[in-house]
Structures are given as structure tokens and as C-alpha cells.
């Protein structure tokens, strides 16, 4: 563990990771605005969730996004609704892109994905067990639509803005990112052991998938997926919050395939 | 009715009476969408086709296509505008414009396949469309705002004080749906409010529909903006097939940003993206020294635009991002781009426009106390101060702007300079008063298509391959990735034209029958796939590929597969071109009624009289061999072009003497009723004798 990661973990343990805290209390304190205030903003890169508060099995897969690589084309949203529902509708997408066309990079856009929380408030709050940890599919947190009574408690329990649990107003049930377990309108096998439609479709390859527990950040599980080839097109390859280090590329030769793997 | 793609109804709004009507889309499905439906609605609902663009009876359509909002690759976000324009000279032809972004998609989520607007509101209004509910709202408080300000105001009006990122609950019930998206707004700025002929419409940042002057047309209707927000679904016949096709296109023809097949050899040359499909290449000739990302229209597999740390010039590409570069300072260029958008001025009218004005200033014709009176800071032409002053003058109709708000072409006519300056080429406006886009003496499917049509065609699907590819290779010092012979062979096969000589741009080739077949193919393909199905012309057709080993592009197989996946309908490529021919012929009939005659279809004098003087790469057959040639010293021959007209009219089933459509030609594409109306107006062509 690096020194900086060590510091972050210490900060978490010294604060919210009180073992007497309820799961919901913990998630609320590290979720959304609570997390931002707690970590003091984006300058702090992230921390690793302590194992001791995890009472449900961890998801075996997570989506990672690189907000600075996203072009805002909404392809992920459309493909998500197509794969799950066979129709196109950003409202039904379990991944969301919000954008201010007049905004200033990198704050002009956000990729908003479900975090498959270690301690999922949406599961915790569901009165019927519809929102559940799916042990048959890598412990992904998802909805059994047959059990959903439409109380929408999950939608409001999600500690993040916007809520990652959605109300499907056309088919009248809650839903959330299932890592493409239930994608009857897609010719690929989805789920934690398979592929994810948004990952496969993103034209800029700004979404990826991992089986490792990701580093938590205020804006989600984020990674820097931009290599030298990205820089060669004059795009920013710095980590979020490090835009001041951006430099236009001026090297004499194009980056080789090897260089891209650095 | 198709199984997918359409949402079922088109909104008709009469701004004079405030009444609205839902038109079943099914009635117009034979026209595809976009331009086809817009033109058919105009034909059916405007009895006097000679109506002026500013007249309340002019019917302006904002049309989607079955592809809009579905995620069809680079075909999901564009909107087609149709109606009588006010920019073309000497007559404001029935015309079109087209803009990207997400407006058409959102309109479909709100339940409509299009919006048709007629009449004129008594006072300024905006349309507020939310999930099938339409309100005509007062725009008294919005009148005078620039195009960015008005969108932000409308977002606040619709969404209230909601957290920028939170779900907006459409109806506070379980049935209305929620969205994290802002309303999609298309609007006009001060230039449109002042009924400028060079006013555009703007949507989000950098999406502009400029040519035709529809900003001024909306201004004349007192319509400031159309805002749409929806949470409905667009049915897709075979979603799995659509996703598979998308991913195939991404992986086979797209640019792998992590490990590209083909990469620009030196950084800072975005125009290289015309051969690679790399993201962010829309600026073509410039990059900014600030942190930035690519930015794409909805569903694009390329994402050709950029967003910047300064927030300036976001989403701008092509001409509006380079219409003014005079100070040599990129940040000022980006300021000028932002301002031209905010004021809602068509940047293309100023391209080869402000420099024309400056030439007149240097000649002592424009300036304080000169023949053309102007007190703008002409001596500071190379500063931002100048372009800022010029743009405000045009938008507000002050100083020289009182003439320029009519468009630079009409200003030149008013000043008595048009004939002389278009003959010398000082004012490079080859067809219908529109700025020269590509060389009309050489790249003739562009110029022929424009002169036989209504405007500068602005369809890049051929141009990327024949002109930009060899050009960018010269710029970066590379050999072309494909020989001229290989390229034209691919094009002949992909288009279905069959004869590679269709893309021979030699002094003989541009008049040959094979060229005319290629020109006709381009008109028909574009009218259907680009302007009615709303495939982006920066991405389609894909006539070859420089990212694949065999060099073959996606056209025509993928267009047909995408259409089938979305609509569920079987459509052959050949049939798609016939629908394109039908739409093209309906336009021809409208222009005929507006007063089009054969003798009007001539280019400005310089096209015939001034030889090309700069290298302009295009494939030609030279001494029996295909080569990319610089094509210097070329003009268009008047007599040979007149012969081209005779043969092209005949090929299209038009009267070679008048250029008017014939009953036989119209009947072949199912437009017998159109022939009846032409006959009643004594404007039906008689065909080749």
C-alpha cells in the first residue's frame, strides 16, 4: 500500500468506520455529499473500504468509468436500455451521463454508474427482498421484478445523486445496474462473469470492468484509462483535479503500441 | 407501419391561432423521415409554393428520422429543418438545414416524430413540449437573450431549482418517468429575432443549422425557441441486431483510442481524422492549448467535436470553429466562435465573407466617408475587437450590418458589386449566393449537386475520400494509404454506380456520363440516407476504409442492416435510392413552381473564367493511369457544362429544355399528383423529344 493510500485508509478508520455504526449509517456518511465533505474534496484520491463493515458478500464485479475520457454521446445509455428492454430510452438506462453543454472541462460532464456498494442501502431498505444480492450471478445487486411492489424505497435510499436505483415507469418496477445479467436483447453473455453492454459499446472506451474492489471516490469508481495515444490527439491525460499539469504533446514520433501499455 | 423507429405522430402548430394538431406519422412513412416528410408536409399544406420565406404561411419542419434517439451509429442525434429559405439568391428556394446534438432524440422521447410550424405569433413565444404536452409560452422575457442565455433560462423554467445532476420527476406520479437530462432546446439569437437572412438556429453549444437562414424565418414567426423533454421509449424492432451492428462498426471501422490501427504521424493535425475517424477531429486545422475532451452527438461512434477547460467553442467543429482566425491567437478564435453562436449568425456567410469586406476596405470602398459607409474598426481587422464589432453590427443591423443582415451576397448586390466581384472571384459564391465550400471547377458532384438543387449541398461523404484523404497525406508528408485506382474501385462498388470513372476529376472526366451517374447517385443517396434517415454526413456513406485491411467501407450493407434492425422493414439499397430520387424530384417540382428555369442554373462568372491556382488533390485518369493530381489551372467550360445540363436533366427524367420534371419522370417515382399540380401551373416538362 502506498503512503498516500495508507493515509486515506487511516482517515476513514479514524472517522466513519466505527464498528458500532449501522450499515446504513456508514454508507450515508461516506455517500454523496457526506463523502465529499469527509475527504475534503477531489484532491484526495480515494480510500479502500474497510472489510469489517461489510455484512453482505461483495459484488464480484464493478464498472469503472473515466469521466475525463467520456465524450457525452450517450451511447452507453442507449445500449443499456436496448440490451435490457429492447427499446431505446435514456430514462431507463442504468448508467447515466449528465452534461452541461456550456460547462468547463472536466466539470462539464459526469458519468454516473452504480457502485455495487459493499453495503447496499437499496438492498437493505427493500421490504420484500426484491432488491437483493444475487448470489447466482456474482453477488450483483439487482431487482427481482416479480417481488417488486413499487414502493420506490430503494430509489430514495441510494445515498448518491442521482439515485442509481431507478423506477421503470413503463413496466412499473424498480431496476438498477445488474452488470448485464438480465439482457434478453443482447447477443452476448452479461454479468460479472461476462460482458457489459456499455463497456463493449463505448466508442471512446471510457468504461471498463473489474473484479477487484475498486478505490472509492466522491464521483464513483474511477480510473484513468487514457494513455499516450490519447495525449497524442491533444486530449488531457492527467488525473481528475490535475488539469494544471496538462501539456500539448510535442514529441517527434507517434507513440508506439508498447508505449501505450505504460 | 414499421415495427420500430417511429413514435407515431408529428406535431403541427399554427402560431397564428395557437392551435395544435397531431398528424399520424404513418400517413408519411413512405417518405422515410427528415427531409422526405418535411418536403411532403410542405407540399400538402402550403398551397402557394411561391410563398416568401418570411411569410407566415411558410411551413417550417423540424423532423427526426426512425433512427433518431435509437443509438443507430452516427445517425441518432441529427435534426432536419425544411421550409422556404431566405438566404439563397436570387430566390429563397425551398431548402433544408440540419444540426446535430440530441434534440431529435429528445423530441422522440417526448412522443413526436417531428414538429411542423406555420403562422406567426402575435408576440414572441417559445414552444414547451414535455411528454406529449405542448404549451405555447410567452417569450417576452427571453426576447433579446443570446442563444446560450435563452437555453439556460428555459432549463431553469422547466427544471426549477433542481440539482444539476438529480432526477427530474416529469409528473410526480409513477407514470411520468424521470430524467437526468436537460431539456433539448433549439433557439434563435438576436440575429434571428432581427430576421437576418444569415441567422441560424442553435441547439446546446455548437450545434447550428445555418444555411437557408431559418433563424430569420423563426424570427419572422416570433418563435424564440422549441424546448423538448421526454421520458418515453423509442421502439426498436431488433435491439440485439442494432447493438451488434454498432459494436461491429466501432471495432472494425472506428478508431481504437487505446491502440489505433492508424495514427496521425505528428500531433496537432486534427484533419488527419478524416482518414482515421479519431475523436475530436472536427476542428480540422486547429487545437487549443488547454485541457479538453472529445464530445459527440448522441449515438456517434466517432465523437468529432471537443469541450474545453475555458468552456469556449464547446461542441463547435468545421467552419464555425475556423471562420475567423485572423488574430492568430487560438483563444480569440474560440471567443469569436462562441460569439457567432451566441448571436445566432450563420458562420458560413462570413467564411470568405469578412475577408471580402476587408478587401473592399483596403480598396477604399468601405470605410468612414467611403462609398459604403462604415465606422467599424477596419484598421484593426486582425484583432478580436474588429470581429466582435462586425458580429454585433450584423446581428443588430447597425453600421454596415444594416446591409449585411441581408447576407453578404445580397449586400454585394445592393452595393452594385455582385456581378464584378463574383466574376473576378473576389466574392467566391458559385451557386445561389452561397459561399464556395469546395472548388466548384473541380469537385463537381458538390457544385453540380448544389446548382441543380437549392443550396451548397454540404455532404462530405464523397469529399472525405476523394479530396481530404490525399490532402491530409500531403499535409503530413505521407503516401496515401490507398492508390487512386483502389479508391475509385471501392467507391464504384460501394455506391452501386459500378464505374470507377464516376470519380475521375480530370478535365474530361467532370463532363462524362459516368460522372453524371455518380452525381445522380449522390443526390439520391443523400436525400434518403443523409437528409431523411439523418445519418451524419461526417460519418456516412463509408465508401472505403483506411482502418481495415481490405480497404472496404461499411456502405451499403450497414445502412440497410441498421434500417432493418431499427424499423423491422426490409428495404433494399436500390429501393432506398429510389425513395431518395422521389424526395429529390419533389424538391425539383417545388423549385419549378418557385420559378426555376434551365437558364438560372449557371455558376458565378469566376467558375468559368478564373483558373484554379492552388493545389487541390483529387483522383484523375492521366495518360491512362489513375493518379492523385494537384489540378492547377482548371476552369469549368461553359459549353460543356450546358451539355452536362442537357444530359443530367435527361438522366433524371426532366425536360432538357426547361429543366422541369416531366409526367413520365414523376409518375415513375409515384408522384403523379405532383405532375398534376405542375401541369395546372403550366410548368410540367415535356421530356426528351
Query: What's the helical proportion of residues of chain A?
Result: 10-25%
Strand content of chain B is 5-15%
| Quantity of strands of chain B, as a count | 21
* Number of helices, where a helix is a run of at least 4 consecutive DSSP H or I residues of chain B: 25
Gyration radius of chain B (Cα, Å) is 24 Å
The count of helical stretches of chain A stands at 9
Q: Considering DSSP H and I runs of 4 or more, what fraction of the residues of chain B is helical?
A: 25-40%
Strand content of chain A: 5-15%
Pairing-aware structural class of the strands and helices of chain B?
alpha+beta
What is the H/E order of chain A? Answer: HHHEHEEEHEEHEEHEHH
What oligomeric arrangement do these chains adopt? Answer: heterodimer
For the biggest sheet of chain B, the summary is: 6 strands, mixed
Number of strands of chain A: 9
Q: Indicate the low-confidence ranges of chain B by residue numbers.
A: none
Overall 3D form of chain A:
elongated
Mean pLDDT, all residues of chain A = 81
Kindly report how far apart the N and C termini of chain A lie.
20 Å
Terminal Cα span of chain B: 41 Å
Q: Segments of chain A where pLDDT lies below 50 for 5+ residues?
A: 1-54, 257-262
Structural class of chain A: alpha+beta
Amino acid at each position: 500500500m502506498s503512503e498516500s493510500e495508507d493515509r486515506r485508509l487511516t482517515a476513514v478508520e479514524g472517522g466513519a468506520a466505527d464498528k458500532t455504526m449501522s450499515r446504513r449509517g456508514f454508507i450515508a456518511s461516506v455517500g454523496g455529499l457526506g463523502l465529499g465533505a469527509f475527504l475534503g474534496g477531489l484532491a484526495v484520491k480515494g480510500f479502500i473500504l474497510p472489510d469489517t463493515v461489510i455484512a453482505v458478500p461483495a459484488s464480484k464485479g464493478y464498472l469503472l468509468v473515466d469521466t475525463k475520457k467520456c465524450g457525452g454521446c450517450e451511447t452507453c445509455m442507449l445500449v443499456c436500455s436496448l440490451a435490457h428492454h429492447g427499446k431505446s430510452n435514456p430514462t431507463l438506462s442504468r448508467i447515466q451521463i449528465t452534461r452541461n453543454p456550456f460547462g468547463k472541462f472536466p466539470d462539464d460532464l459526469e458519468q454516473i454508474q452504480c457502485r455495487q456498494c459493499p453495503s447496499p442501502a437499496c438492498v437493505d431498505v427493500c421490504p420484500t427482498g426484491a432488491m437483493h444480492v444475487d448470489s447466482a450471478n456474482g453477488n450483483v445487486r439487482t431487482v427481482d421484478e416479480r417481488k417488486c411492489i413499487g414502493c420506490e424505497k430503494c430509489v430514495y435510499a441510494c445515498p448518491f445523486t442521482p439515485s442509481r436505483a431507478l423506477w421503470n415507469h413503463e413496466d412499473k418496477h424498480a431496476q438498477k445496474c445488474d452488470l448485464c445479467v438480465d439482457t434478453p436483447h443482447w447477443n452476448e453473455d452479461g454479468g460479472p462473469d461476462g460482458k457489459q453492454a456499455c463497456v463493449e459499446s463505448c466508442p471512446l472506451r471510457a468504461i471498463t470492468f473489474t473484479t477487484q474492489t475498486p478505490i472509492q471516490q466522491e464521483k464513483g469508481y474511477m480510473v484513468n484509462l487514457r494513455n499516450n495515444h490519447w495525449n497524442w490527439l491533444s486530449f488531457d491525460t492527467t488525473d481528475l483535479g490535475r488539469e494544471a499539469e496538462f501539456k500539448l504533446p510535442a514529441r517527434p514520433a507517434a507513440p508506439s503500441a508498447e508505449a501505450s501499455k505504460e | 407501419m414499421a415495427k420500430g423507429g417511429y413514435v407515431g405522430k408529428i406535431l403541427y402548430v399554427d402560431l397564428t391561432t395557437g392551435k395544435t394538431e397531431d398528424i399520424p406519422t404513418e400517413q408519411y412513412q413512405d417518405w422515410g423521415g427528415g427531409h422526405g416528410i418535411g418536403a411532403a408536409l410542405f407540399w400538402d399544406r402550403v398551397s402557394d409554393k411561391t410563398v416568401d420565406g418570411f411569410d407566415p404561411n411558410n411551413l417550417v419542419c423540424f423532423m427526426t428520422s426512425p433512427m433518431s434517439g435509437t443509438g443507430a451509429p452516427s445517425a441518432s442525434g441529427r435534426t432536419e429543418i425544411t421550409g422556404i429559405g431566405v438566404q439563397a439568391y436570387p430566390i429563397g428556394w425551398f431548402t433544408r438545414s440540419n444540426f446535430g446534438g440530441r434534440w431529435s432524440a429528445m423530441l422522440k422521447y417526448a412522443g413526436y416524430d417531428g414538429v411542423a410550424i406555420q403562422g406567426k405569433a402575435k408576440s414572441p413565444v417559445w414552444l414547451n413540449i414535455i411528454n406529449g404536452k405542448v404549451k405555447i409560452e410567452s417569450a417576452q422575457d427571453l426576447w433579446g437573450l443570446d442563444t446560450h442565455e435563452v437555453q439556460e433560462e428555459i432549463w431553469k423554467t422547466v427544471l426549477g431549482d433542481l440539482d444539476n445532476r438529480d432526477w427530474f420527476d416529469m409528473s410526480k406520479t409513477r407514470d411520468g418517468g424521470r430524467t437526468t437530462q436537460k431539456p433539448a432546446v433549439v433557439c434563435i439569437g438576436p440575429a434571428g429575432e432581427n430576421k437576418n437572412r444569415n441567422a441560424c438556429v442553435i441547439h446546446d453549444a455548437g450545434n447550428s443549422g445555418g444555411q437557408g437562414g431559418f433563424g430569420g424565418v423563426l424570427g419572422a414567426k416570433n418563435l424564440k425557441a422549441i424546448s423538448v423533454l421526454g421520458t418515453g421509449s423509442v421502439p426498436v424492432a431488433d435491439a440485439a441486431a442494432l447493438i451488434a451492428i454498432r459494436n461491429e462498426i466501432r471495432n472494425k471501422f472506428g478508431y481504437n483510442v487505446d491502440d489505433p490501427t492508424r495514427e496521425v504521424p505528428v500531433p496537432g493535425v486534427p484533419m488527419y481524422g478524416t482518414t482515421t475517424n479519431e475523436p475530436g477531429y472536427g476542428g480540422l486545422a486547429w487545437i487549443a492549448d488547454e485541457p479538453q475532451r472529445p464530445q459527440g452527438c448522441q449515438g456517434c461512434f466517432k465523437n468529432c467535436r471537443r469541450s474545453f477547460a475555458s468552456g469556449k467553442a464547446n461542441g463547435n467543429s468545421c467552419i464555425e470553429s475556423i471562420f475567423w482566425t485572423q488574430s492568430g491567437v487560438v483563444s480569440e478564435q474560440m471567443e469569436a466562435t462562441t460569439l457567432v453562436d451566441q448571436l445566432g449568425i450563420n458562420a458560413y456567410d462570413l467564411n470568405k465573407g469578412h475577408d471580402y469586406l476587408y478587401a473592399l476596405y483596403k480598396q477604399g470602398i468601405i470605410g468612414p466617408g467611403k462609398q459604403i459607409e462604415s465606422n467599424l474598426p477596419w484598421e484593426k481587422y486582425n484583432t478580436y475587437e474588429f470581429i466582435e464589432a462586425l458580429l454585433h453590427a450584423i446581428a443588430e443591423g447597425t453600421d454596415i450590418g444594416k446591409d449585411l443582415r441581408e447576407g453578404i451576397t445580397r449586400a454585394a448586390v445592393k452595393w452594385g458589386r455582385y456581378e464584378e466581384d463574383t466574376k473576378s472571384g473576389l466574392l467566391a459564391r458559385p451557386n445561389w449566393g452561397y459561399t464556395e465550400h469546395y472548388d466548384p471547377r473541380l469537385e463537381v458532384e458538390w457544385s453540380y449537386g448544389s446548382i441543380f438543387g437549392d443550396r451548397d449541398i454540404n455532404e462530405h461523404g464523397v469529399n472525405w475520400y476523394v479530396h481530404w484523404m490525399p490532402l491530409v497525406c500531403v499535409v503530413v508528408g505521407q503516401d496515401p494509404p490507398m492508390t487512386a485506382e483502389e479508391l475509385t474501385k471501392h467507391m464504384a462498388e460501394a455506391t452501386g454506380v459500378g464505374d470507377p470513372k464516376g470519380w475521375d476529376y480530370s478535365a474530361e472526366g467532370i463532363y462524362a456520363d459516368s460522372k453524371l451517374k455518380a452525381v445522380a447517385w449522390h443526390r439520391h443517396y443523400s436525400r434518403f440516407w443523409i437528409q431523411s434517415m439523418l445519418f451524419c454526413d461526417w460519418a456516412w456513406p463509408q465508401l472505403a476504409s483506411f482502418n481495415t485491411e481490405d480497404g472496404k467501407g461499411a456502405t451499403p450493407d450497414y445502412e440497410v442492416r441498421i434500417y432493418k434492425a431499427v424499423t423491422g422493414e426490409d428495404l433494399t439499397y436500390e429501393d432506398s435510392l429510389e425513395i431518395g430520387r422521389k424526395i429529390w424530384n419533389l424538391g425539383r417540382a417545388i423549385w419549378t413552381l418557385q420559378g426555376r428555369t434551365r437558364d438560372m442554373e449557371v455558376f458565378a462568372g469566376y467558375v468559368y473564367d478564373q483558373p484554379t491556382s492552388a493545389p487541390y488533390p483529387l483522383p484523375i485518369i492521366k495518360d491512362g493511369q489513375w493518379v492523385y493530381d494537384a489540378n492547377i489551372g482548371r476552369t469549368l467550360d461553359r459549353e460543356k457544362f450546358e451539355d452536362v445540363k442537357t444530359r443530367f436533366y435527361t438522366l433524371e427524367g426532366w425536360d432538357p429544355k426547361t429543366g422541369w420534371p416531366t409526367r413520365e419522370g414523376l409518375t415513375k417515382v409515384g408522384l403523379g399528383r405532383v405532375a398534376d399540380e405542375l401541369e395546372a401551373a403550366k410548368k410540367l416538362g415535356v421530356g426528351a423529344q
